[in-house]
Description:
This protein is mostly beta strands. It has 2 helices and 13 strands, in the order H-E-E-E-E-E-E-E-E-E-H-E-E-E-E. The longest helix is centred in the N-terminal third of the chain and has 19 residues, at 2-20. It is globular, with a radius of gyration of 25 Å.
Amino acid sequence: MIKLAxxxxxxxxxxxxxxxxxxxxxPDGGTRQMITSIVVPPLxxxxxxxxxxxxxxxxxxxxxxxxxxxxxxxxxxxxxxxxQERRFLAPERADNPITRLTSTEIADPTTHTAxxxxxxxxxxxxxxxxxxxxxxxxxxxRSPGGGATLTRTELGTQTVNGLEIVGTREVTTxxxxxxxxxxxxxxxxxxxxxxxxxxNIVTRRDDPRNGxxxxxxxxxxxxxPDPKLFALPADARIIDRRPSAPRR
Length: 248
């Protein structure tokens, strides 16, 4: 019994000693990388429902290749309202290819409102929404500052899901001094665009800094989607953050 008591005393003293030591370092913020998916404009009179497939492949320092994927639902009705799922990127599993849903978004150009809903917190935040600005397409050649050069190649047309899509490849060669690299880098982007839907049906980006990103839209169903997609969840708490919202 005395030996057991001495053992407990020794363990207590060791724990007290360790807890009294200063931490080895401050908390680490870590590194976060993210990619920007396709843009679905609020185009009226061009309704559809489809699936966006994302594949992000990076080559690590030791030569290993890491590939993350997700598949998410998007839709647009005849009014131009846009519904989108947001899901985690993760290694694809054959037994469960659908990754965790993080949020749903509804952009309504008729009420100038965007709703961001969390399925786990049961909360929807309303924000002011306006038509996304369409940046001008850069002309081939050297940039105004001389830090990059753009070349563009037309790839012709294809038919996918009954839609005619037009292909373009762009290669931007960036001076290493602009990025802090010891040599120029080439960034390649390829787009296959549907004029009927106003969407890039296929987008490929190959950037040495971020890896290869591929976005494809398939399972395209033309016509108005299920109207339930554009209704806020009945059990959600609504937080109105629009500038004109009444103060609470």
